[in-house]
TrEMBL record:
Cofactor(s) named in the record: FMN
GO CC, one annotated term: cytosol
Domain of life: Bacteria
Name the record gives this protein: N-ethylmaleimide reductase
Molecular function terms, GO-annotated: FMN binding; oxidoreductase activity, acting on the CH-CH group of donors, NAD or NADP as acceptor
UniProt entry keywords in alphabetical sequence: Oxidoreductase
Alphabetical list of SUPFAM superfamilies matching this protein: FMN-linked oxidoreductases
InterPro entries assigned to the protein according to its UniProt record, in alphabetical order: Aldolase_TIM, OxRdtase_FMN_N, Oye-like
Sequence ranges assigned to domain NADH:flavin oxidoreductase/NADH oxidase N-terminal in this UniProt record: 13-337
Family under the similarity heading: Belongs to the NADH:flavin oxidoreductase/NADH oxidase family.
């Protein structure tokens, strides 16, 4: 790689990163069955911090209702906060920064996966049509119809994000990424296919965006605007949300409001490289024009395409997902033009160190 690479040169400004390489959020299901971070997670993130200027963690539940999947970590109890401290310390020791992705799964869940006393909630009582949910010991199961949230449930979910954000700061995180993408709770509200409410949280663009903006506003009030980012996947199809009619208008509205709130960053997902519909160019360009904060691009990048998009000012930072799975020393490999290890896809979500922290460095 050339020495004058934009990708590898520092990113100055409020985030102050050693380079413009972001590790994308990736669920790896290596927490305990009680959703507590583990020692191997500290090793995994600590090693990748040598390369990435900014790490965004795997989707992390802001509350017991938001857990959805087996063995994903949470940010809603003391033990989780205390174990996350080890992860953030390991990342900071290697001069990287780390945001936690707060992911409330909403209807993408299963009763067997959520802690006792919690419930599966969503904007409307509509189950995903094709998505199944993995349950340990049972395999892929049908997802039941979720409970339609009451106004109190919505206030509770908003507060859960705010409390989890405060917990995250206490755990040493540099900030939080609100998961507004990929068909999870907030995307379920944004999308009229999954939000058929007739109250102030459904119907018009303003109403479908309301919960997102309330969460962002309250989180910013609690921990500061420079510590809050959001992820969106316009035109995304993951978890059976699917495209809808006035998508551009919806994301334009959200962007204008988020810009007004001084949000640190918007992180855009393009899942075209994963065989899903692509992020429309007009939406990406419009967000870039309207949003004065940091724009993170993600989806199918290698070092050359990332460099190219940065040179063309399409975004400020580029996130890499799959390349980080099997390459703890990703940047060193790029610099030496060495080949990349291929991830073992059958071990993506399995418990233990194998397929997680046993990929070789150069
Ligand atoms: C194993 C795996 C787990 C993922 N988990 C998450 C997640 O928890 N949250 C999220 O927003 N995206 C998740 N993604 C999507 C990635 O963040 C990224 O957008 C996607 O992999 C495309 O980028 P890439 O081509 O660089 O891999 C996941 C992807 C993979 C491969």
């Amino acid at each position: 790689m050339k020495d004058n690479s934009m990708l590898l040169s520092p990113f100055y400004g409020p985030l102050n990163l050693k380079n413009k390489v972001v590790m994308a959020p990736m669920t790896r299901s290596r927490a305990t069955q009680d959703h507590i971070p583990t020692e191997i997670m500290t090793t995994y993130y600590g090693e990748r911090a040598v390369s990435a200027g900014l790490i965004i963690t795997e989707g992390t539940a802001p509350s017991a209702n938001g857990v959805g999947y087996p063995r994903i970590p949470g940010m809603y109890n003391r033990e989780q906060v205390s174990e996350w401290k080890k992860v953030t310390a390991a990342v900071h020791a290697n001069h990287s920064k780390i945001f936690v992705q707060l992911m409330h799964t909403g209807r993408v869940s299963h009763p067997a996966n959520i802690p006792e006393g919690s419930e599966i909630v969503a904007p409307s009582a509509i189950a995903p049509s094709t998505t199944k949910m993995y349950v340990d010991g049972e395999g892929e199961l049908e997802i039941p119809i979720p409970k339609e949230m009451t106004t109190e449930d919505i206030s509770q979910a908003i507060n859960e994000f705010v409390t989890a954000s405060k917990n995250a700061v206490e755990a040493g995180f540099d900030g939080v990424e609100i998961h507004g993408a990929n068909g999870y709770l907030l995307d379920q509200f944004i999308n009229p296919n999954t939000n058929q409410r007739t109250d102030e949280y459904g119907g018009s663009t303003e109403n479908r965006a309301r919960i997102v903006l309330e969460i962002v506003e309250k989180t910013i009030a609690a921990i500061g605007a420079e510590k809050v980012g959001i992820r969106f996947s316009p035109n995304g199809a993951l978890n059976d949300v699917g495209p809808f009619e006035n998508q551009k208008e919806t994301f334009d509205y959200l962007t204008e409001k988020l810009n007004g709130l001084g949000l640190a960053y918007i992180h855009l997902v393009n899942h075209a490289s994963m065989g899903a519909p692509s992020l429309p160019d007009d939406i990406r360009i419009s967000i870039r024009e309207k949003f004065k904060g940091i724009l993170i691009l993600s989806g199918g990048y290698d070092k050359d395409s990332a460099e190219n998009d940065l040179q063309n000012e399409k975004g400020d930072l580029v996130a890499f997902g799959r390349p980080f799975i099997a390459n703890p020393d990703l940047i060193e490999r790029w610099k030496r033009d060495a080949g990349l290890n291929e991830p073992n896809m059958s071990l993506l979500y399995t418990p233990g160190a194998k397929g997680y922290i046993n990929y070789p460095s150069l």
